[in-house]
């Protein structure tokens, strides 16, 4: 019998509900932020723990909007790199986006799917 056949599918796909045995805490909030992005700072974790887990997820998805100012800066960097005549250096603009994005979920999803198709 392999390990996958031992997983209770109904449990695995059910929403997380905090309990006394498994409370919603900073450790689980940090896990959520690592899965949905690249991590969180202390302030973000403190805010997430004050919410119910489902509300924290909704907030992450709702904030999945790229501010115009950030997009303008990232696009200007990309145009500057392309103007230099070496498109292979364009990866530096992408690294900038990954490091400084206010929208980690979008960038993490892009990273996840970029090699799939």
Please work out how many helical segments DSSP would assign: 7
- Describe the largest sheet: none
Number of strands: 0
Assembly type of the chains comes to single chain
Polypeptide structure, described:
By secondary structure, the chain is mainly α. Helix content is 60%, strand content 0%. Helix 2 packs across helix 3 and helix 5 packs antiparallel against helix 6. The chain is elongated.
The gist of it:
The protein has about 120 residues and is mainly α. The chain has helices at about 10, 25-35, 40-50, 55-60, 70-85, 90-100, 105-115. The mean pLDDT is about 90.
Which properties best describe this structure?
60% helix, elongated, 117 residues, 7 helices, mainly alpha
Blueprint (SSEs and pairs):
Elements: H1 9-12, H2 26-36, H3 42-50, H4 53-62, H5 68-83, H6 91-100, H7 104-113
């Amino acid at each position: 019998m392999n390990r996958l056949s031992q997983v209770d599918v109904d449990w695995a796909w059910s929403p997380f509900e905090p309990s006394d045995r498994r409370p919603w805490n900073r450790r689980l909030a940090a896990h959520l932020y690592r899965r949905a992005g690249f991590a969180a700072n202390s302030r973000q974790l403190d805010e997430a723990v004050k919410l119910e887990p489902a509300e924290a997820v909704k907030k992450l998805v709702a904030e999945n909007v790229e501010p115009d100012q950030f997009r303008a800066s990232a696009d200007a960097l990309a145009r500057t790199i392309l103007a230099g005549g070496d498109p292979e250096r364009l990866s530096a603009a992408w690294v900038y986006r990954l490091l400084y994005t206010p929208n980690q979920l979008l960038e993490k999803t892009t990273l996840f799917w970029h090699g799939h198709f």
